[in-house]
């Protein structure tokens, strides 16, 4: 990899979406890679063919004789070998650890680039052994009173008055429950830009009809979640069960923290949990954490659940430290998710930037929130396996900032 420049020159929007139906994609394409007859299969890159919006500022990158050629903004080297460590990443103004030049100036995938054909094939061949499958999706109905002021889910079940037929009409905020935060969700707050130097003002808002699938406005599609939907978020999942880690050997099984109260998990804590479970990380892993939000929600009274939406949001999550950033980047995870509503400890300490800015804005790393990992916890504990094949096919929302994950684990 070419040497990276040391310095790059150079909202929190929550939208609702009307969805007539939620389609799921099959794994036949991926599982076919396990067959010798499918050798040589190539997965289609998800990129916008038209020009992207002009960047907010020019990225100063020194030319290098060993720079790899790019195709649609992505290096031909699908293995992504010799990635820089966190300390080698350049600054963007006052923000440390900018990975825009790692993935390419026109990139719209971020760390999903790490989920190459080889990575997916290896994960599928090594991890799918017993055929046991686990859904990681909380039903769209929950929580019935969403957090952060988001719209409650509306599911209108419509029986036909004349035939034995039914329709459903669904109106949700794509971040009211189980979700992926996409690249359009959270930008660099002090600089007015989203991932890969995309100006916030280049993105339109409101209801925007799209009629011709062959003539999509590139500014409408740029860094939209349809890119991840087209590529898929598939590979080896790694589960860190912080709840069982902290309650092991205790009689009352009480956590030393409250999932519904501000608390930060350290990088050392995650590493210790991984060591206890016998987990070794590798590049391209999809990291999934269990911190206890959904477990507590399921065991709470309805009055306690309803009160969550009425009070200021406070939740346990990963801390915003430089050690945590090094842990996440240097292990080169493709994505990270948890059962918590914000992934990171919420709210952030005064004067501390949100981890969302680093993960989404500087790295392009998907953030999963409110994944239902209760059954996954049971299966992992019963089998002693904390790695599995993971698949997720978000909704193909052109220009979307988030989506339900449609995620599953395969053992």
Q: Explain this structure to me?
A:
With 411 residues, the chain is of the alpha/beta class. The chain has one domain: 3-Layer(bba) Sandwich (Glucose Oxidase, domain 1). 21% of the residues lie in helices and 18% in strands. A nine-stranded mixed beta sheet has the order 7-21-19-13-15-17-18-10-20, with helices on both faces. Strand 3 and strand 4 form a beta hairpin. The two termini are 35 Å apart. It comes from Gymnopus androsaceus JB14.
Main attributes of the structure:
Glucose Oxidase, domain 1; disordered N terminus; 3-stranded mixed beta sheet; 21 strands; 411 residues; single chain; alpha/beta; 9-stranded mixed beta sheet
Task: Give the topology.
Layout: E1 7-8, E2 16-19, H1 28-31, E3 70-71, E4 74-75, E5 91-92, E6 95-96, H2 100-103, H3 117-127, E7 133-135, E8 154-159, E9 166-173, E10 179-181, E11 193-194, E12 198-199, H4 218-221, H5 226-231, E13 235-241, H6 242-247, E14 263-265, H7 267-277, E15 286-290, H8 293-299, H9 302-308, E16 316-318, H10 322-330, E17 335-338, H11 355-363, E18 367-369, H12 374-383, E19 387-392, E20 402-403, E21 407-410
Parallel strand pairs: 1-5, 13-15, 14-16, 15-17, 17-18
Antiparallel strand pairs: 2-9, 3-4, 5-6, 7-21, 8-9, 10-18, 10-20, 11-12, 13-19, 19-21
GO molecular function: arylformamidase activity
Biased composition (Basic residues): 1-14
Protein name: Cyclase
